[in-house]
Design brief:
There is one protein chain. This protein has about 60 residues and is α+β, with helices and mostly antiparallel strands. The chain contains three helices and two strands; from the N terminus they run αβαβα. It has a two-stranded antiparallel ribbon with strand order 1-2. The longest helix has 16 residues. The chain is flat, with a radius of gyration of 14 Å. The model has no long low-confidence stretch (mean pLDDT about 80).
């Protein structure tokens, strides 16, 4: 729940300022999230998509 609140606050702040858009690798974010959730859930999680998923966006907004 705290992650959701922090994400919404970050989005709120980003919305008021200029966003600097760059390429962001969602594959790395997906792997990082899976590692965090594996510990929390104590079970294996598998991502079967491509290792690199490049998107155009604001790095802080997609995490």
């Amino acid at each position: 729940m705290q992650d959701l609140v922090n994400s919404l606050l970050m989005l709120s702040r980003a919305d008021r300022g200029m966003l600097k858009l760059t390429t962001v690798d969602l594959g790395a974010i997906i792997q990082e999230t899976l590692e965090e959730k594996r510990v929390t859930l104590a079970q294996p999680l598998v991502y079967q998509g491509p290792a690199t998923v490049q998107v155009w966006g604001h790095p802080a907004s997609v995490q």
